[in-house]
Amino acid sequence: MAGEIAEDETLDETALQWEFVDGKAMRFKLRIRPVLRNVTFSATTDNDPLLEAVDLMKWAFRQKKSLRQFADFLPTYFIPDHVRRYLYGSDALGRKKLLVDRYEFLVYRLLRNGLEAGDIFCHDSVRFRSFEDDLLGEEQWRRKEELIASTGLSILQEPISEHLDRLEQLLERRQRARKPLRVRLAVQQHDRGETDHPFHRHPWKQPSQLRPTPLLRLPVRATLQRSL
Predict the structure, then answer these.
(1) Taking the model in full, what pTM does it have?
(2) pLDDT for the residue 129
């Protein structure tokens, strides 16, 4: 059997995968349908075709009806073209019919892909909830002063200009602390307008081979403002 499969160049592996799904249909129905019935999903776009299929399936399951009863009404325009031919078979009269077990499995697969891609959300989930679910509503944001005060964090009540000044001073102290003593002295003389320092006249004679650079206050402030 394995030799025949290896020699058959026309073997459709995707068809074999769907045949495997046919054999596991009862198992995934028993495990996934209860979850689908009780979970609410949303999407980044209105009238998402996949969620239309989910809503119809949830309604049928709650009514304890088979999807085969609604095969002609199930939305199919979300089905990818490369999968479509595997979701249809023929009835006894040779007419094209939708294979509802495969259809149901495809919905679960696309639902999972949408959740992982961030296109579909679950409000009750921690991992798959929408970014908007973590934001304060408009009504709450109108009370922002009260909310900020309730946090007990004084930094949130500090004016932004004072906060930037303090960060700028902290950054400059750290920059000075990291410079060697020779460089710090040269920087101080440069700031005072004293350029007759041997470090300035003969920078190539210094071990570090570095020229002093004055601290630029405005770029530091601009950088902090952009980051905030």
Answers:
(1) 0.57
(2) 75
